[in-house]
Amino acid sequence: MFNLIFRIMKNPIMLALFLSFFLISCEEDDHDHEGCQECHLEIMMADGTVDHSYEIGEFCGEDLHDVEENGWTVVTAFDHMGTTYEAGYQFSASDVHCEEHAH
Amino acid sequence: MIMNFNFFYFIFFFSFCLYSQTNGVLLNLDRVPIQNASVYIADQDIISYTNEFGEFSFSTNIPKNSFIEFKKYGYSSKVVNYKGGELKVYLEKLHVELDEVGIIDKTKKLGEGKTLSIETKSLNNNFISSSSLVETITKLPGINTIGSGLGIQKIVIRGLSGLRVVSYLNGMKVNNQQWANDHGIGFTGLGLSEVELIKGASSLMYGGEAVGGLVFFKDSPFIESKIPSGYIATKFDNSHFLFGNQFGFKWSFNNFFINLYGQYDLAADYRLPNNTYLFNSRFRNKGIKFSIAKRTNNTQSIFRYQNNVDEVGIPAHAHGDLSEIDINDLASSELILPDDYEATRPTQFINNHLFTLENIIFNNQSKYTFFIGHFINHLQEFEKWTVPGFDIKTNNSIGRFNYKKFYNNFTFNAGTSFEYLDNKNSEATDTLTPDASSKDIGFYSILDFENKGIGFNIGVRFDHKNVESSDVNFENSYTSFSSSAGFFIEKNDHISRLTYSSSFRSPHFSELFSYGLHHGTMRFEIGNLNLENEKSHQFDFKHQWSSQHFAFVVNPFFQYIHNFISINPTNDFYNNTYRIYNYEQFKDVILYGFEANIHYHPHILHNLHFHQSYSFLNARNLDQDTYLTLTPANKIKTSVNFDLKQYKFLKMSNISLYHMFVFNQDNVSLYESPSDSYNLLNFELVFNPLKNMTIVSGIKNILNVEYVPHLSRIKEVGPGVPEPGRSFNVSVKYDF
């Protein structure tokens, strides 16, 4: 059996096969972003339009991940476009946008 | 178990111990040796070159009934069906020293006979003379591209794209979310030498689902040479501030062949005609490819591996009513480098691995081909920085066996294929299509006949496909027959061929199971579990004639598709932001039109080549009495090419001008806007300052035209987002 395995390893095609499996095992799936991003809210207005103008500040590292995954909770009540959002109001993750824009 | 393993090893890796050689000589009609001509054994994918005496040799016997292609610039190509013994081949010198015009003798992977209308396009210098792989292919009549910029491009054949156009890379099907227009082709031109294309479903060997057509990409052949050879190349394109680098390496020894290639491309946002930059149209590509082949007298084993990694920005990403968007909000006033090379959001991260192992056994009048392939596509789409919107892994495995038999003027092919496709989602904010899998088994047989200027082809294929998804408690089977038939007549440099093909396409996971927000297309998509097989019938007639100076091709076609699956907009919105699209099925859809092209080399100026092609298409949805969505506009493409080698002026070898006129597209469907006509003009100059060095420089969109192709995926954003403005490019390639 060991003889057969040794002969297989000498075959260059088999060697190529093993090498390519090795390459797959090194695949990196992480696209971790370590930097900071300015985030804003996407708020549905009463007339059905969407407003993107309310900024909620800069988030970095774990805080950025948290706000993108879990959403943002209002800390201090604010008024925006005629609506009051009390402290504790929860904006969902889909309401929070941190992507860059054209400069 | 050891005996079973040894049997498996025998089938895929056995080799004989005895080797001999095949020699030959290539001469012109005056019996003068032809030096540096290529001698290509198609079945074994090996190339060699003649020496100063016109001699060539291969280190093993070439199996009988192998097709060998002889080619040299300035001579008429020839394909020889090898019957054994030493080869002495004569090539006719062309009256005109440019590329051959019209009917060219050539080997093809998709079929040897003249019955099948197979178009081919060389990709040998695609990296230095073209912005992208897809751009090169769109120079063929009837071929368009759907996408945006250079980062996202897909092939459209006679108005059909996505799942209806099946791409094969060295025999392996490429499955990479081709159902959506925000995904590219999944690989680059790295290491490719040629593409073969069938419009419609006439290639039964590779499945019956190519309702629109089949595109077969072939790697550069292995080289019979103990001296390693290869190239390095680099390019810059200022439309995207793109820097690209590529290398290739070939070597052979003791009937063992290696090809190795690598590529790295980096592109920033592309410049619009108004000198702003479309934000997030940037992309990055890394690729590596290697192939190993082992030959004996009667066998060939080829293993190929390719890894392609893409980071592709999704430009014109906006929320709300897309028609109200101001393009200036999507474009930057300046490019900030190197920041604008870095991935921003939303971005697709794609990692593709492709493995194939092909074994061929030659036995006098027969050939047995065993093929296994595996394709892994991993797509992560990030709209947010740290949490993927989608994370999908698609695994596709194919096993195929083909038996080929030559008998007098008949060629018989029979075979079977098995395909397993698996789609799995990892943790992400959204899931557009659930976990699902499909198994497909097919059987086919094809008969070709060709003799003294007459030939026919007839084939039939049976497929049974099972689709299941436990996530939505769905299981269904789809069974169908595909067929193709055709004949040709060749007389006095005229060839006429008429072909009929019928094909089916079973519904894909995305069409059955979609339910969710697709950020890349900015729409909410809903699948339909009641979809049935699409069934297509196509008639294609082609007539071509050529002389030494002039050639023309006329190609009308008609296609009828029953149960046409389409994704269509509704009047409803998800979250008041994203329009809802439903998958529907239309009973009757027809596509018809014609393509034509002419080639001309003036007698008084042999170095000048003029080529013009025409493509006209009409696509109707008879159910709703409307036009089909995303029907490409009609086009006239013109190229003028002047060979400068004989003048030895400033080391220039070629100058070319390319013009494309695109007609208005007013034949639109509901919720689709029409498109205006436009002209595009490109220029290219080729230098050879040293024997092995090629420099290509060019200008694209010379007139800086602001145009929005009808098939642009961002046409409906604002007034339509234009393609790149005027751009300069320069490439350098060194062969060793």
Describe the model.
The complex is a heterodimer of chains A (103) and B (736). In chain A, 32% of the residues lie in helices and 31% in strands. Chain A has 103 residues and is of the alpha+beta class. Chain A has a domain at 36-97. In chain A, the strands form three sheets. A three-stranded antiparallel beta sheet of chain A has the order 2-1-7. A two-stranded antiparallel sheet of chain A has the order 3-6. Chain A is elongated, with a radius of gyration of 25 Å. The termini of chain A are far apart. Chain B is mostly beta strands. Chain B is built from four helices and 42 strands. Chain B has a 22-stranded antiparallel barrel. A five-stranded mixed beta sheet of chain B has the order 6-5-2-3-15, with no helix packed on it. A five-stranded mixed beta sheet of chain B has the order 8-13-14-11-12, with no helix packed on it. In chain B, a hairpin with a 5-residue loop joins strand 40 (678-687) and strand 41. The interface between A and B is large, with 36 and 49 residues.
Whole-Å distance between the termini of chain B?
Answer: 48 Å
How much helix is in the residues of chain A? 25-40%
Shape of chain B: globular
| Total number of strands of chain A | 7
**Gap between N and C termini of chain A:** 65 Å
CATH architectural type of the largest domain in chain B: Beta Barrel
Count of all domains of chain B: 2
**Largest β sheet strand count, sense and barrel closure of chain B:** 22 strands, antiparallel, barrel
- Most extensive interface between two protein chains, with residue counts: A-B, 36 and 49 residues
Poorly predicted regions of chain A: none
* Lateral strand order in the biggest sheet of chain A: 2-1-7
Mean pLDDT of chain A: 78
Q: Measured on Cα atoms, how large is the radius of gyration of chain A?
A: 25 Å
Strand content of chain B: over 45%
Give the radius of gyration of chain B: 25 Å
Q: What's the story with the biggest beta sheet of chain A?
A: 3 strands, antiparallel
Unreliable stretches of chain B, pLDDT < 50, 5 or more residues? 1-19
